[in-house]
Amino acid sequence: MEALERYSTSNDLLTIIIVLILLLLVISRKLFQQRFEDFISLFSSGKYLVIKNREHKALFGFNVLMLLIHILSVSLFLFMLYRFFLNPRETETEVLFLRIFTAYSFFILLKITVEKIIANVFDIDETADNYLFIKHTYRNLISLILLPFTIFLIYAPHQSAWIIYSLVIGIFIGIIFALFRIIKKNQGLISRNWFYFILYLCALEITPYVILYKLITTR
């Protein structure tokens, strides 16, 4: 029987990150109990979007916590994708995760800043704020759904490609579903400005992720 070579790397840092994410979730639940429950209810209803869309400025603290959870969760998943597809022998876990976390944080914060600047330049701050609130809410929800699957990938004794491909496909389905809900909720506005909406999707929703993919996959 032919022996299979297996590479073992330490998951200590990843365990710390997972514990940190869970701690942030507990803090969010403790400090913003009603808002957190309304946010989780998005699995079954859109109550959170209807109520909180009118008071999104009052949700600054909660949104910051959810943004940090999102960045940590997605960084973990990107780390697992890199380790599985590009460099299974990677041993410098701390350095690699720090690079991914820093790059993704910069990417997200820069994207939010550019979106805010564009909204201000075209004098559509209120409309853009409502749209971005809904988009970021679904983005945070998808990252929460992704977390348990990422934890499974980290500690599973054997990682098969079909599981990761299924996760990636599931993420795309979730993004498409969220986009569909956003379009449906803002159907009247989008129909009057369909050209600008398509331009926005290409410039700020598709191109940045293509660039991020190229940066990650380029050795």
UniProtKB/TrEMBL annotation:
<feature type="transmembrane region" description="Helical">
    <location>
        <begin position="162"/>
        <end position="182"/>
    </location>
</feature>
<protein>
    <submittedName>
        <fullName>DUF4271 domain-containing protein</fullName>
    </submittedName>
</protein>
<feature type="transmembrane region" description="Helical">
    <location>
        <begin position="58"/>
        <end position="84"/>
    </location>
</feature>
<keyword id="KW-0812">Transmembrane</keyword>
<feature type="transmembrane region" description="Helical">
    <location>
        <begin position="96"/>
        <end position="114"/>
    </location>
</feature>
<feature type="transmembrane region" description="Helical">
    <location>
        <begin position="194"/>
        <end position="216"/>
    </location>
</feature>
<keyword id="KW-0472">Membrane</keyword>
<feature type="transmembrane region" description="Helical">
    <location>
        <begin position="138"/>
        <end position="156"/>
    </location>
</feature>
<dbReference type="InterPro" id="IPR025367">
    <property type="entry name" value="DUF4271"/>
</dbReference>
<dbReference type="Pfam" id="PF14093">
    <property type="entry name" value="DUF4271"/>
</dbReference>
<keyword id="KW-1133">Transmembrane helix</keyword>
<feature type="transmembrane region" description="Helical">
    <location>
        <begin position="13"/>
        <end position="32"/>
    </location>
</feature>
